[in-house]
Write a sequence for this structure.
DNA sequence: GTTGACAACTTGTCTAAACAAGTATATATT
DNA sequence: AATATATACTTGTTTAGACAAGTTGTCAAC
């Protein structure tokens, strides 16, 4: 049983997606939500705050919660969602080819230095995968999972879904990730796996993922064909300090 | 006078930046914050929630609020911050050259179609700027500001800071933005303004910015030299629905 | 020494209430 | 008709309290 505010959030979110609450209209007022769901006002406000944070609504004082244009999920990179979840949500046919698996590798720390990683040579399970979309290989994912946190990552988990393995099989709770997007020339491996011409460019997404107890455990380098890459972001204006 | 939770947020944030609270240590507990600032627990929790949202801390139940690695601001794109604010915060010497100014232009809707823009031909003020960093032109910004929302944008505002003009001069409140990052070949204008070779690639950031009353008013196409582009993002794992 | 129960901490969730402040509408006044 | 006013809505902020649940250390029992 999860909490009430999360239930209200899920319900409102689904109704916005299903256009029960349409773009440009207002959600029920906070007091109406209290009656509708049998909750206190603060509980409803928590759900609304999360909707606002995720770009579903804009709260306007004196008026209400306005449903706004929402384009959160975009293939292939958006927030911290597993590839498999994203493909399912968007109904995209994808294939996942594991072309490298080494349970006794070492973390290439240099690649993640700009993300603030200051580890020494850590034992990791190294996994290389190619993501095939519409029969065309578009993305190379190189994952390094710390053995000190997750001693064993079976090849089967890599072929299916790493996140499902971590969360459903091992019961770990994934907390947050820092990612960095850069543009780099394709290397020999990129060209070979993705059938690219010399001179091609890649969108490279490097990320460090941590559990809810703040232990970093997964380091990923995701290399995308430049012409297929698209990243979407929703951000709110920060109030100026002081 | 802003609110108490924002004051506590600013104070904790500054102390984290100043390493009064160091990486890997815990902030004062919620009850201690109540005594320290003379606030109620929920008010302190609100400040902590915002810190967590912005990647400063990780809350761990039963333990406390752990200060984590924080790398929010990165040149040149991060969240929704004005170019000038970012340059000042990072102490980077930049120059800003306005090379195009047309107060009677029309919004190029095709460029922003993928962001959900469904306007017809709207009158805008069109501004073209080159951002010069370390004596090297790196970025082209093309801004289109709706005349229906902001009838007049003086050239002076473009040379200084558009955001400062909107917020400080006109008293408008900027609410949120949706942005999209793609990788595209450099066009003739890119090559001319930034002195690039044929075959060069660009990181293109297109964004739609809205006021707190949800009126979209600014459309920006920001074109970056590929080799100088870097985007950093912090994201939390969403709890699975249902 | 090991184990288990307990107490004292921590954060998580929820409630009920009060007041401030922005918006919109109806109404009375001019 | 235009304007001002009252009032009934809306969201924003803060408080005080209660209970749940995870973490840690102490201490007694075995």
């Amino acid at each position: 049983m999860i909490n009430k505010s999360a239930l209200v959030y899920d319900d409102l979110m689904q109704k916005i997606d299903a256009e029960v609450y349409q773009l440009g209209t207002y959600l029920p007022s906070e007091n109406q939500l209290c009656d509708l769901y049998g909750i206190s006002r603060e509980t409803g406000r928590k759900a609304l705050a999360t909707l606002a944070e995720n770009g579903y609504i804009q709260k306007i004082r004196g008026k209400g919660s306005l449903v706004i244009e929402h384009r959160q999920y975009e293939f292939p990179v958006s927030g911290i969602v597993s590839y498999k979840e994203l493909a399912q949500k968007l109904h995209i046919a994808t294939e996942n080819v594991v072309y490298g698996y080494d349970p006794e590798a070492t973390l290439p720390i240099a690649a993640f230095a700009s993300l603030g990683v200051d580890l020494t040579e850590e034992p990791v399970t190294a996994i290389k995968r190619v993501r095939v979309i519409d029969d065309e290989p578009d993305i190379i994912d190189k994952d390094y999972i710390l053995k000190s946190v997750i001693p064993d990552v079976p090849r089967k988990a890599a072929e299916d879904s790493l996140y499902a393995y971590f969360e459903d099989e091992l019961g770990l709770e994934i907390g947050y990730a820092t990612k960095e997007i850069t543009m780099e020339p394709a290397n020999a491996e990129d060209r070979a796996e993705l059938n690219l011409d010399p001179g091609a460019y890649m969108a490279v997404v490097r990320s460090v993922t941590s559990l809810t107890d703040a232990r970093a455990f997964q380091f990923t380098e995701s290399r995308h064909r430049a012409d297929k890459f698209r990243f979407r972001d929703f951000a709110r204006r920060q109030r100026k300090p002081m």
Summary: Chain B is about 25% helix and 35% strand. The beta strands of chain B are 57-60, 64-67, 94-106, 123-133, 136-146, 174-185, 201-211, 216-225, 230-236. Residues 3-5, 39-43, 46, 60-63 of chain B lie near DNA strand D (CB under 10 Å from a C1'). Residues 4-17 of chain B form the longest helix (14 residues).
